[in-house]
Structure formats: C-alpha cells, structure tokens
Amino acid sequence: MKTFNKFLILFILLSQMGIPDAICQVSINTDGSNPDASAMLEIKSNNKGFLLPRIDFNNRPASPAAGLMIYVIANGPLGNGFYIYDGTGWFKLLSAPVFSIGQHYGGGVIFYIDPSGQHGLISSETDQQDNYYPYFPYGDSTLNITGATGTAFGTGQQNTAAIVAADPTPQIAARLCDTSTHAGYTDWFLPSVDELDSMYVHRDTIGGFDTGFLYWSSSQQSPPAGWVVTFYAIIPNEAWTNKTANLLVRCIRKF
Predict the structure, then answer these.
(1) Which SS3 state, helix, strand or coil, does residue 83 take?
(2) Full-model pTM
(3) Residue-wise pLDDT tens digits, 120-155
(4) Could you report the per-residue pLDDT of 90-126, keeping only the tens digit for each?
(5) Do 217 and 226 form a contact (C-beta atoms < 8 A)?
(6) Burial class (CB in 10 A: 0-12, 13-18, 19+), 153
C-alpha cells in the first residue's frame, strides 16, 4: 500500500509539472543543489563513488555507441580497467588503443600492424573507379622516375609522391590514390609491391578484391614497367608489366 501511495504522489507531481518540465537536468546529491548548467546529470558526494557496469571483455556489447564506457574485470586486451568505445574500437583509458588485423578503422580495414602495435596500414575496402570504370595505367612508360623504386613496407607513400611529381599523365594509379578523399581522408597512396603482397594475404579480411585480375603497386621495375601482384594465384605472384597497361587500383593509408 505504501508503494502504491508513493507512485500516486509521483504521478500527481509529474502531472502538475507537465511532461516537458519533467524532462530536465538531474542532480543526485545530499545538499539539494541544482546540477551545473553544462551537465545533464551531476552526481555529488564527499565519500562515495560512481559504479560502472563490471563485465568480462568477452561479453562487451556487440554494437556499442560511441562514448560507451565499461569497467573490464576479465580478459581485457590491455589488462583490466576502464575501457571506452570511440566509434571505431575499444580504448583503455590511460593506455594505448587496441588495434587488430581486420579492424574497421580510419576509412578502411587494418591489414598490417607494426611491432609497436600502434601504427600500421589501412586498405580501402573498394577499388578506385572513374565513372564506374576501374582500370587505369601506372603512367608514362618512357619516364624513369627517381624515388619510385621502393618495394618494401613503408615505401609506398614515397613512391606515390615521386610518381605524381614526375608524371603529369591524368588518371594514373598513383594520382588516383594521391587525390582520393575516400571516407574523408586525404592521405591515401598506392601501395608498394610488398605492401600489396600483404593485402593479397589478407584479401578475404579486407574484401572487395577482384580475384581474377592484376593490381598495380607503386614500385617501378624499370623505366617502361611497374610491379604488379596477381590476385588470382594461390600465392601472391609478383610480376611486372608495361606502365601503360590498364589494371586495378586499391589505395592504402597509414595510421
């Protein structure tokens, strides 16, 4: 009966206040003060804390909202403690972010992480196109481009810059990546042949590749040719072909 009376009193108070007035800022305290003007909810206490949900990281929400915070009590990838979801991944507060191969982040999919665990490479999830046409040349086969011969990880960006600076041909593979604004980012580049090999290894994780065709790398083989990777082989098959060949293009960026 007492519970019923409490609900009745609450209903009468809300009715008198009106619904718009009932939806307002809230202050939880013992001194009766109003919440700060900048806060929807303010909790005041001199001797008590605010307790978040305590869960196993493996049981974290499947589709979290950006800004969601939890306290992890088991299986935290960087140890247990406070984690927050920033819209792309879970970060441990006062700790480095957690990255993983296959994670959707920074405009694409992570396919390489360096030994620090904090940096790597992201592939776009789609090939470059121009009015639905997906095939483009490397560039002018008569040009010997200084600075575009890098093949290792970390050389794709410098290769791309060298090609764009030396070859004025429009709609070439490197320029398509260099001028791309995919997902709001402007630092895309054409991968080196070793970076492209890694993309082949993780092709199913990244997705969207044409496994029956060739992709350009930014690595120049010689003045008339550039390195390519065949995506239809059982293993990544590096080859080279004339720069004027029209092949597929997939851009990447660093994080």
Answers:
(1) strand
(2) 0.67
(3) 999 999 999 988 899 999 999 999 999 999 999 999
(4) 988 876 778 999 999 999 999 999 998 889 999 999 9
(5) yes
(6) middle
